[in-house]
Structures are given as C-alpha cells and as structure tokens.
Amino acid sequence: RNFLKSNQIETKHIIDEFLHVALANPSIFFSLHNNGSEIYHLKQGNLRQRIVSVFGKNHNDKLVPIEENTEYVSVYGFIGKPELAKKTRGEQFFFVNNRFIKSNLFNHAIQSAYENLIQDKTYPFYCLFIDILPSAIDINVHPNKQEIKFEDEKSVYALLRASAKYALAQYSIMPTLDFEHQANINFLTNPQSSAENEFKTLG
Asked: Is the pTM of this model over 0.90?
C-alpha cells in the first residue's frame, strides 16, 4: 500500500490497462465497473466499432484506415483525421503482436506524417497494430513489458511513417503525394539491406 498513489490516479491506471486489453481484442465483450457504476460496456465488434465505443461517435467518420504488409512486418489499424488532434496525449496506441507498447520513436514516425496538417504541440489519434516475427523483437527490456527492442526498428519506423502519409493522402487530407508510395513500402521486403537509406530519406 505504501507504493499506491491516490484513488484517482490508481483508477486511471486501471482504466488505461483495461483499454489496452479492450482495444487489442475487439471481438470480445468487455465491461468495467467502478464503485457500483458501469464505466464501459463494450460490445463485440471490429476494431472501428471498438474505437467508437471507447472514444465516442465523433471518431467514427474521422478514422483513416491503414493496412500495409511486407515480408518483414505488417501494420494495420486507424489514424485520425487532423481534426481529431488534441493538445494533450492519451489517444495514441501501438500494439506489437497484440501487446500494448510505448515507443517515442514510433510516436515520432506518426507525428511527422502530420507535418503541416496539425498545429504544433498537438497530437493525432492513432490505434495501430504491428505484427512481426517474435524472433525480431525482445520483450524483456522492462518489467512491465511495454518497451520492446526491435532487431530493425528503423524499418518499422519507415513503414509507419510512409503508411500514415499514404493513408492521409488517399483520403484527400494531403493535397498530393510527396513520395512514391510503393518505393517506400517495397524496400521493407529486404529491410536489413536498405532500411538505412530509406530512413535517412524519410527523416
């Protein structure tokens, strides 16, 4: 008990963990109760439906889907249109092999895709899933398992950024493509040999 914080802070931690599991498993029904009141009642559905159930109907028509598959890594999920950006963090989610993680580098990848689309010091919405071979990552970096070491994190960074920019362009949010999408994506079929150059280009 000496390590517990206030009831409000501990409740927030519980809600955060609940949402991580609920977002990662939209096909499962979840409910969360606190002091006799139901906070969340999340019906079974797909990922879009789960996001809307958690964050509200306002998100439904402002979600931009992402799905990219390479031999090395796959990315799928949703990013938000610029109008969903907020001045505070909290609606940014990465899952690797269905496990929630934190990554400042990957946050930067998505944030940079919104360059000139959102104001400074605002943060876009995203809920993205990264599937990669377990042998290409090390999850034993931190006791809470929310930090992961990647064998080739630059390739994942490049795919995330290119995919987000392409998705925003597809939905006419960006005026034109400023890069050849396939060139940015296809290099990841052999990430070890060309990730460095692509990372420098995207950076």
From this structure: no
Residues 104/153, Cβ–Cβ less than 8 Å? no
Mean pLDDT, each 10-residue run in order, the chain (203 residues) = 79 94 98 95 97 96 94 94 93 95 94 92 96 86 76 92 93 52 48 41 46
DSSP string of 117-160, one letter each residue: TS-TT-B--EEEEEEE-GGGEE-TTSTTS---EETTHHHHHHHH
- Axis-axis angle for helices 7-24, 47-55 (nearest 10): 160
How long is the chain? 203
* Matching residue, tokens 């944030």: 111
Consecutive H or E run containing 155: helix 153-170
